[in-house]
Amino acid sequence: MTRRHAAAALLLFALLSPHAVAVRAQQPTPAQQAQPQPTPTPDAVERIKDEGLNRSQLMQTLEYLTDGIGPRLTGSPALRRANAWTRDRLTSWGLSNAHLEPWGPFGRGWTLKRFSAEAVEPVAFPLLAYPRAWSPGLEAPLTAELVVVDAKNEEELQKYKGQLRGKFVLIGTERQLRPRFEPTATRLTDKELLGLADAPDPSLLPPRPRRAPPTPEQLAEQRFNDRKTQFYYEEGVALLVASSPAGDGGMLQFVQSASVPQPSDTPFEQRKQPWQKDAPRLIPQIALSNDHYNRLARMLRQGEKVKLSVNLQVEFDDSDPMSYNTVAEIPGTDLKDEVVMLGAHLDSWHTATGATDNGAGVSIMMEAVRILKALNLQPRRTVRIALWSGEEQGLLGSRAYVNEHFGPVPTPTPAAGTAAQPAPPTSNTAPRYKPEHARLNVYFNVDSGTGAIRGVHMQGNEGLRPFFRRWLMPFAQLKVGDTTYTATTVTAANTGGSDFLSFDAVGLNGIDFLQDEMEYGPRTWHSNQDNYDRAVPEDLKEAAVIVAAFVYQAATMDGMLPRKQQKESRQ
Q1: Which listed CATH number (3.40.630.10, 1.20.59.10, 3.40.50.2000, 3.30.70.920) goes with 6-17+42-106+323-409+430-566?
Q2: pLDDT in tens, 15-25
């Protein structure tokens, strides 16, 4: 997932469909208040607990997804294998209409075939490194001199002309690494949970200040950095060796897509991405752990002649430019045309096996529907699970699904040659949606790692509070193994960074659960340590039974959950 800080949430919201509408919270209308309140079904919830805690298949699902299939980069053969495996697994549990829904085109698949990197002169040592996704490979294993281009302007840059062909260039930033005195893994404290429970309506908060535009000096620096990158291409540099954007203790964090040379003033929507088939030619690119990057940088400053040996072999796959979401259902009964959805993103980054981001969420959601089928708890509404792709590139799979199934519907334009003209846009123009939009009760999402669920975000919709508080009552004290969990917090605070935003952006109930941080931010998020061993079985089982209970309640309640009122939107 993309991290759930406010800045990231705003950025991802901006990336959503251009037809996305803003929404704000409001108190329930009298009509909503008059709806029948959901009646708890203790017997069903207790059966869900028993099945999910005593006969769980969650860790088997996560183990195969991570160890058996491995990294699931969007567009890759491995992700398509994960799509097929999850579809077939859901079918084997008795779900209906399990299928893959295409979206796109996305672009090229990429698979790492072989990689090693080591320093060979003046001293030999293996390097902690990883290629960037969609980087091209080397034609053959290569040993070459490592150099730094120390140029601050065009005149200084020209001194390197004719000197870089076939060499490795060290780029990036030396980062000061400090001892960590705080624990890596944390759980939400009672004080933090109380603060979330008391969080105000987000619509009442003052707007966040806009980020200051770059200064002329910053713009000039960025343009020169772009010029240096172009210079490396012109001079025939063999490999770019970058620092890891974050991480210490041998951890590589945020080693993501290969950089694509392009003017710094190119608008975001026009920037070329490395997975696009028409992306410009790239120099092979790897990133080092920060301790190894710093060591090499210091050696070069000391005047040492450093040589590295790198073997980088990759494979691009142009056979299918589309990407896919896995979708399956438990059909409803008397309200079968209405839908309750749950989902998580199936894709991951490539430096590990995507266990906490987001194999954990996928396994929780798959286990939730397995529990419902195993118990034969027949929902009134259809329950639909969706496992998204393209989340890491900007919620692409869920955005495409929402656009396809729910809208908004574009404003029609008159046929060519007619005198009719579309009405001019006004502040009173309301968005139009597809029929499925009115039939979706709620979408539930999990994408915050391996941590236990401690409550639920209302995403600014105060009308959901009485429902969610009631649904959490059976989980005030839940013992799993030797651990007792408490999940009681309902917060009005918004969160951000995952696929529920695609639903929220068009006025649907897109809901994310509140989870313990554990070691997600400092250790596993987009890092080379995001592997099966970092998953906590007890936490995941607790999360799965809560999700199953929420889905069951939403699928059997008498009325529909209230929605946020949409702001008037210009079309």
Answers
A1: 3.40.630.10
A2: 334 333 333 33
